Structure formats: structure tokens, C-alpha cells
Amino acid sequence: MPKSRKRRTVTRRPKRRRAKPGARGGGSFFHIQVRPRSEFVTFRNQDLGGHGGIERVAGRRADGSWDTQKWLIGKSEAHIDGHKLVADSLAAEKVLGQLGSVPRHLEGDRFVAKPRRRIPASEKPTPAMRRAQLANIKKAQAALRKRRRKRA
């Protein structure tokens, strides 16, 4: 006589998704997203300065153009005060100043900010670009004078 099989009821747990980087606050960087990840195909980290300092995550679009997807600021370079990110170093202050808006806290170590304003061609060269051009011209002229003095 065949035995009846017992049916096991398996309680299915909902699948846990992987937490986004910086979502739990355990890492060594604050993540400031400037553009959505979905705009890009591949990514590359650029380390600015020393280890654990400031990094730029550059994303490559499908058309081949590159842009900043997010900034990673080391926890030794900044801290959270309430819901605001406060810079502790000049480098972090420079990055936060170049953003198009004040970083807004999402969760954990994640912030979101607007990218800096695009300058239309009609407004170029900007005063800062002009100053840089003049400084470069002066450097080139000084190097040329130095080279000529060595020959004579």
C-alpha cells in the first residue's frame, strides 16, 4: 500500500536586494550623486589626491561622451551635521562649492546634488578663463626668456 506523501510548506522569504553603495553608512566615503546612474554605460574612478580623500566617478554614455556621475568624499574630509554635509578640508570645500546645489541627504552616506551650470558659448570666454589664458601666456613667455638667456 503506497504511503501518502506529506506536503511540506516552504515559507518563501522575499528576496533581499543588494544595498546601494553608501546606503547603510558603513563605508569610508560620502556619495554625492550628480547625475543618475542610468544615463551611463560604464564607469571609471579618478582618485584626486591621496588615499581615502576625494574621488570622482566618471560615467561614459552610449554616445561616447564622459561626465561626472558622482563624487566620493572621504569621511576624513567631511562630516554630517544634521542633514547637511560639512567640509573639513579645502579640497572637500572646493568640490562642494562646484556643485550646482547644496547636497541633499538621502540615506546613510548618500547625498544628491545638481550638476554645475553649463556655460553657453555666447558667454565664453568667462573672466576665469581669460585669467587662466593670460597666466598661461605669461608662463610661456617666461620659459622662452629663460631658454634664450641660457643660449646667450
Tally of individual domains = 2
N-to-C order of helices and strands:
EEEEEEHEEH
How would the global form be characterised? elongated
Number of helices: 2
Please tally the β strands and state the result. 8
Mean pLDDT equals 89
Low-confidence stretches: none
Distance between the termini: 114 Å
| Computed structural class | alpha+beta
Cα gyration radius (Å): 25 Å
Strand content: 25-35%
Amount of helix: 10-25%
- Can you summarize the main beta sheet? 6 strands, mixed
In which order are the strands of the major sheet placed?
A: 2-3-4-1-8-7
Outline the fold blueprint:
Layout: E1 29-33, E2 42-48, E3 54-60, E4 66-74, E5 78-81, E6 84-87, H1 90-98, E7 104-107, E8 110-112, H2 127-151
Parallel strand pairs: 1-8
Antiparallel strand pairs: 1-4, 2-3, 3-4, 5-6, 7-8
Any descriptors?
152 residues; 6-stranded mixed beta sheet; alpha+beta; 2 domains; single chain
Any overview of this molecule?
By secondary structure, this protein is α+β, with helices and mostly antiparallel strands. It has two helices and eight strands; from the N terminus they run E-E-E-E-E-E-H-E-E-H. A six-stranded mixed β-sheet has the order 2-3-4-1-8-7. A two-stranded antiparallel ribbon has the order 5-6. It has two domains: 84 residues, no CATH class; 31 residues. Strand 3 and strand 4 form a beta hairpin.
Task: Please give a quick description of this structure.
The protein has helices at residues 90-98, 127-151, and strands spanning 29-33, 42-48, 54-60, 66-74, 78-81, 84-87, 104-107, 110-112.
